[in-house]
Structures are given as C-alpha cells and as structure tokens.
Specification:
The chain is mainly β and about 325 residues long. The protein has a single domain, classed as Sandwich (Jelly Rolls), CATH 2.60.120.430. The protein is about 0% helix and about 35% strand. Strands 1, 2, 7, 8, 9, 13, 16 and 18 form an 8-stranded mixed beta sheet that branches. It is globular and about 50 Å long. About 45% of the residues are buried.
Length: about 325
C-alpha cells in the first residue's frame, strides 16, 4: 500500500539534501492568469519574460511567507495567530535513512535540523511585483519505492502543556507544540514553484502540495484510530502539480467538492491508500507541505533526483 512519508509533525524536521544547480530564470508575470492545479497536475500558464506589471484584479491576498526573514521562519502570516500562540516554522523532511550494507539508501541536503532558505542567483518578482531574493529549496536522491522528498511549514504553535517549566538559567523559549489553525476564511493558496530536475520524458517533476488536518495527521488521533500505527495517516487533502524549469504561479482552490469529487483546481485525498474516511476540515489545518515521490522499485531504474523550489506563498481571500 502506498505511503506518503513526509512528516508534518515537527517544527524543525529535516533530512539531508543533495544540492543541484539552479538555472537563473524569471518569475511568472503577475499580470497573467494564475496557474491553476488540474487533475493532470499541470499549470495552465507558464512564467512570463515581459517584465513585471502589477495586477489590476480586485482579488485580495494575504501573505503567508516570502522567505526573506530568518533562516527558516517564522512565517509572516498576519491574522489569527494571537498570544499565547506564535507563528510556525519551515521544515524539510522525507528521504529514508535506513542502511543497506552500510550505505545510506537516500541522500538529501541541507542536513537534518539545518534547514534554511536559499538565495536566488538573481532576485525576481512575484505577486504584484513583490521582490524576492530567497526561496525554500529542497533536493534529494531517492532510491526506495515511495520514498519522498518534501518541504513545508506549520501555521501556529503554543506552549507545550506537558513540558513543564524550563530549569532556571536555561536559554531559549518555552517548548512549543503545533496546534490546528483555522483557514476557512480563505478560498485558495497561491505560490511560485520550479525544479531543476524534470523527468526527461515529460519535462516536469510531479510535486504534491497538501494540507494536513486533524483527520489526516496522526496528531489529530483520527487516521491512526488514537493508537501508534500511522500507516493510514499523511494522505492529506491536496493537489498534484507539474513543476518545470521555469517559475510558475500555481493556485490551488481550498475546495474538496462533494462526494469526493473536487472542482477543477480543487483538493482531494489519494483514493489508492490511507484513511479513506478523512474529511476536509479547513478550520483545523496544521500547515502546508510540498513533496516529490519515487514510484518505481529500486531495481527498476536509477535514483530519482528531486530539486523543489517554493517561493512567496499567499492565501487568496
């Protein structure tokens, strides 16, 4: 049974990454239509090279993060994250590290616990000519069947009630845990994505963006039945997109439709594995993550090389 292995349970979860060279290219012209996720996962518009023009649309957006502040966050979303809650952080995850004959099965970069935003070789612009000099980047070499490479962030944290009081004289803040966050006021998410490792047969890399909530994440105690078996978890609502070597703006509707049939550009769970009783609960979402996955047996071909870039993430109101 297929398993999505991206961990969304920690604020600073990281696995090692293999750096690939980023091709210098321009961001999507914000005056063009958004690239919308479809069943086939292809965006409906590519990056433009004609220069930045502010949009004349009346659409309203709320910045979640532009990756320009700090090494991995916190995110910049303004609204709904009130004391004692604080904004969450970016993390990287995926890539299995089980040893086989003394050799690590997968590789990734940056190393575990050291995720940081990456500088763009050439600053660019995104929504309404917003300048960008940094983005979230993750690269991996995947060898095992269904091994994944992912990056994401969590919306909100609060003090851990089980951690107790830190010892006197210790440095750092109180231990914190991620809590569900209400995003039901928003209609969609929009962001920019690209890769330097497309499949030569399709000229793209399949990347799934998903939103773990209390039904699909084991912290909600639903997909795992309240026990320790998480094999049915992590099949979160999301959409599969096709990243190319040109920056594209993707817009994904936060709409699961009815009877498991989402509208065009909406979100769904994978019907081939995981907890199939999961409901989309926009009022109880932990965060957003992106992942690529190897879908062939180790002996069926060479390792899957993945290089995922994510920039300037917004809610669409």
């Amino acid at each position: 049974m297929r398993k999505q292995l991206l961990c969304s349970g920690c604020s600073l979860v990281a696995m090692a990454f293999l750096f690939g060279a980023l091709a210098a290219c321009s961001k999507n012209n914000p005056s063009q239509p958004d690239a919308v996720a479809t069943d086939g996962g292809q965006a409906d518009s590519d990056a433009g090279d004609s220069g930045c023009k502010p949009s004349t649309s009346n659409d309203k957006y709320a910045l979640i993060d532009d990756m320009e502040m700090g090494t991995n966050g916190p995110i910049e979303l303004d609204g709904g994250i009130n004391s004692p809650r604080t904004p969450g952080y970016w993390y990287n995850s995926g890539a299995r590290y089980s040893e086989d004959g003394g050799t690590l099965s997968d590789t990734s970069n940056p190393p575990q616990g050291s995720f940081a935003f990456s500088a763009l070789p050439t600053p660019t612009t995104t929504l309404n000519c917003h300048p960008s000099a940094h983005a979230a980047r993750q690269t991996c070499t995947l060898n095992g069947l269904y091994d994944t490479c992912g990056v994401g962030f969590e919306f909100a944290q609060e003090p851990d009630p089980d951690a107790g009081t830190p010892p006197a004289g210790t440095d750092g803040g109180d231990p914190r845990v991620t809590v569900p966050f209400d995003i039901s006021r928003y209609k969609a998410i929009t962001f920019w994505g690209m890769t330097t490792t497309p499949d030569p047969a399709t000229n793209s890399l399949l990347v799934k963006v998903q939103l773990p909530d209390t039904d699909t994440d084991p912290r909600g105690q639903v997909c795992n039945g309240g026990g320790g078996n998480t094999s049915m978890c992590y099949n979160s609502y999301g959409a599969t997109l096709k990243f190319t070597t040109s920056w594209q703006q993707f817009t994904v509707l936060l709409d699961a439709g009815k009877d498991g049939v989402p509208p065009e550009g909406g979100i769904a769970i994978d019907s081939s594995w995981g907890f199939q009783g999961a409901q989309w609960i926009p009022a109880q979402v932990y965060g957003i993550n992106w992942q690529a996955q190897r879908n062939i047996d180790p002996d069926a071909g060479p390792p899957l090389m993945t290089d995922i870039w994510i920039d300037d993430v917004y809610f669409k109101e």
